[in-house]
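Anyone up for a design puzzle?
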C-alpha cells in the first residue's frame, strides 16, 4: 500500500493522523434525551438539577394523588349513598321510580354523548398533543409527578 507521499506505508508507523474527540463536548451536544425527544428539552430542564425536578414533580404528584383519592372517595360515597337512599325510598313507597323512563333517558343521553364525542375529537386530540409535547420537553419532572401521584393514591 502506498501512503500519501508516494512511499510504502509502515503498519507500525506513528505518523498516521488521528482525530481527537472531546467526549465532554460531545456529551453536551448529544444528550440522550435530545436524540429521543428532540432538540428542545424544555425550560425546566435548563433551570433546575435533575434531583430538584424529581422532587418538585414528586411532591406535586403526591399532593394531586392524595386529593384525587380523597375527592374520589367522597364522590363515590355521595353517589352510592344517594342511590341507596333512592332505593330505600322506592321500596318504602315514598318515591315511585319509572325505571323504563330512566332507561330510555339514559339511552338517549348515551346517543347524544356519542354524537358530541365525534365532533369533539379534534379538540381532544389537540389537548393530547399539547400534553404529550409537555411531557416530552419535561420528562424528568413528569416522571417524578407520576411517581408521586401513584404514592399519593396509595397513602
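Challenge accepted. My sequence:
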Amino acid at each position: 500500500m502506498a501512503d500519501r507521499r508516494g512511499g510504502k506505508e509502515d503498519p507500525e508507523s506513528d505518523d498516521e493522523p488521528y482525530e481527537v474527540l472531546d467526549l465532554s463536548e460531545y456529551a453536551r451536544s448529544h444528550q440522550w434525551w435530545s436524540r429521543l425527544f428532540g432538540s428542545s428539552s424544555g425550560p425546566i430542564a435548563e433551570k433546575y438539577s435533575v434531583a430538584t425536578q424529581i422532587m418538585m414533580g414528586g411532591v406535586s404528584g403526591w399532593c394531586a394523588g392524595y386529593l384525587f383519592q380523597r375527592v374520589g372517595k367522597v364522590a363515590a360515597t355521595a353517589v352510592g349513598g344517594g342511590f341507596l337512599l333512592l332505593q330505600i325510598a322506592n321500596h318504602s313507597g315514598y318515591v315511585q321510580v319509572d325505571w323504563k323512563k330512566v332507561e330510555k333517558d339514559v339511552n338517549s343521553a348515551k346517543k347524544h354523548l356519542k354524537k358530541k364525542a365525534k365532533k369533539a375529537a379534534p379538540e381532544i386530540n389537540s389537548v393530547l398533543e399539547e400534553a404529550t409535547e409537555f411531557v416530552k420537553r419535561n420528562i424528568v419532572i413528569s416522571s417524578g409527578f407520576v411517581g408521586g401521584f401513584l404514592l399519593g393514591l396509595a397513602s
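A detail worth pointing out: The CA atoms of residues 23 and 145 lie 32 Å apart.
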